[in-house]
Description:
Mean pLDDT: 87
Low-confidence stretches: 18-29
CATH class: Mainly Alpha
Structural class: mainly alpha
CATH topology: Cytochrome Bc1 Complex, Chain D, domain 2
Order of helices and strands: HHHHEEHH
Bound molecules: heme C
Largest sheet: 2 strands, antiparallel
Number of helices: 6
CATH architecture: Orthogonal Bundle
Amino acid sequence: MSRLVSRCVLAASIALAGASIASNLRAHGNVTPQAVNTTALPDIKPGNDTWIKVNPYRADPKVAAVAAKIGESAYGGNCARCHGLEAISGGIAPDLRYLDKGEAGDEWFIQRYQHGSVRDGKVYMPAMGDTLGQKAGWAIRTWLDTKHEE
Ligand code: HEC
């Protein structure tokens, strides 16, 4: 594909994504992101805006306990309406208890969290990275690991 054509395709899909976010907002009522207070968690190295691929809050049990608590509430405010209370899906979105546990599932988790899921211009899941931030993402991931099922 030429550069110009691929640019046009990109622009078109961004426009479509915008349109379906707008219709999503109307269909589902209030979808305002619920801010997450992550000040109790260590900053991410090398920086909170540099996205990493492995959960930095898992290794230290004390940090993991704080992260899981923050993650549980962040999940309730931002994910449960689609993925279900307590991470038990009612069927409209995947059941996150079955994500691969630990490092094996980290990269997939954080990439979906950061970018959401858009296919053919339709928003299946809104991007969360810019609105909630990376620290909240890893906190949610830490809590989800406690809910994991095979
Ligand atoms: C508006 C509904 C909606 C919200 C809100 C939402 N998701 Fe999703 N999520 C989905 C859908 C639908 C999919 C499946 C996407 C696909 O099929 O491409 C998905 C997929 C995922 C996946 C990949 C699951 C898998 O098995 O491959 C992860 C991880 C995920 N979401 C995490 C989250 C987290 C964490 C939050 C909250 C911060 C969240 N989602 C909020 C609808 C949502």
